[in-house]
Amino acid sequence: MEYDFTEPPSFPQPLFPAINETSAKEPSERNSIKSKRPRSSTSSISSAPPDYKSKSSSSKIQSDVKFPSLPQSPSKKSRSFSSSSSSTSTATSSNSTGTVTVSRNSERLITSHATLRNATLRTFDDVVDEATTSLALRAKMHAESITLKSSDVIKIGVCTTMSRADDQYFLYTLASKIHHAMSLQNTYLFALFPSMTGNGRVATLVFCGAPQRLVTKASILAGLRFKTRLAELQDQEGTWTGLLEASSGSATWAPLLQDEEVLWDIVRKAVSPINPMEPPAGSRGAAQLVHDARSKLDRLSPREAYNETHEDGVLVDIRPEAQRIEYGSIPGAVIIERNDLEWRFDPRCADDRLPIADRYDLRIIVYCQEGKSSSLAAASLQNIGLWRATDIEGGFSRWENEGLPTHRISYDSSSIASESLHR
């Protein structure tokens, strides 16, 4: 059978004008037509019969339905993504003519990258100069001021750095920056030392200041304190450099808190007046020590202390034996003289502590004869971790004046009690 493909085949008019053209075709033809259509949910199809044209015996039937033109999606090569790790990625967009438009974020990113490529790289000296300048200004701001009788103000300080222990160049540069920052100050003294360990057991220690006598005095005091651990390396005008060896028992050098406290003590004593009748800089009197100790304590009256002995309070008599014999004692009090107090109540000292001193929340109530040395003793117990330690206001004298229980003890009973506690 021969077919004439010069004229399109005629189909009967559909019953319903709005019916989709694909419903009148075979399933295979409908699938072919669907694969040729763009994916759009807004396209509409004419109800008129389609006009088919045959190109060859094996060509596929196509529809002449025209769909609205859609913007072409950019190709993979025309897409641009930001190399930044931020959450807002920069992508390109495309119009109907295929022209790629770069967003403003991409322009800023490209500009910043070009700026970085054209920028001059910083050298190691630039980094050291910036770091030492910042440290010098910080040391000046946090310097301790000491006023002498002559109304002269001396600035002192201890500056720790993050450089290596053997980095002398960094410390020399820092000393120079401190001299420059303190150029308007006539009298000053600073100690510089690193806070990071080096490869060996030796670290660099630097004193810088003005006038030269303060630097010299500080180096002498450091030699007396560190003894064989310190060796002089260089002595210039306004700057002294030494090598500090690690303390015995440590494999490598590492600055300890006690070394920093020693340096503070050295610089304070170096600027103190030479007159032996004047107190050294930074020293505190006995009254000041008691006042500072009592600032940590919640002191108790004798009546309050008596009430707490019926709960969990432990009375501790730190007076010497002669006072206990002369004035008496409080019944039930634990007798621990002052020189043994910390060892008997420190939970860390398993061999020397009392059996009851096995925790840090122990309520220890210390008393002496007048209530002064007991404040220092209670503050010392708090320093080792016994945070509930306190003392009695007025000591044993006020306890006795308020009519609270006391008793006299003989020499023999006191010795026996003291020996039994020490055992």
Question: What is this structure, in a nutshell?
Answer:
The chain is an alpha/beta fold and 423 residues long.
Protein architecture, described:
The protein has 423 residues and is an alpha/beta fold. It is 34% helix and 14% strand. The chain has 13 helices and 12 strands. The chain has a 6-stranded mixed sheet with strand order 3-4-5-6-8-7, sandwiched between helices. Strands 10-9-11-12 form a 4-stranded parallel sheet. Helix 3 crosses helix 4, helix 5 crosses helix 6 (257-271) and helix 7 (286-294) crosses helix 11 (373-383). The longest helix is centred in the N-terminal third of the chain and has 18 residues, at 124-141. It is elongated, with a radius of gyration of 45 Å.
Task: Produce the secondary structure layout.
Blueprint: H1 27-36, E1 93-94, E2 100-101, H2 104-118, H3 124-141, E3 144-147, E4 153-161, H4 168-181, E5 188-194, E6 202-210, H5 212-226, E7 230-236, E8 239-245, H6 257-271, H7 286-294, H8 302-308, E9 314-317, H9 321-327, E10 334-335, H10 341-345, E11 364-367, H11 373-383, E12 390-391, H12 395-401, H13 411-422
Parallel strand pairs: 4-5, 9-10, 9-11, 11-12
Antiparallel strand pairs: 1-2, 3-4, 5-6, 6-8, 7-8
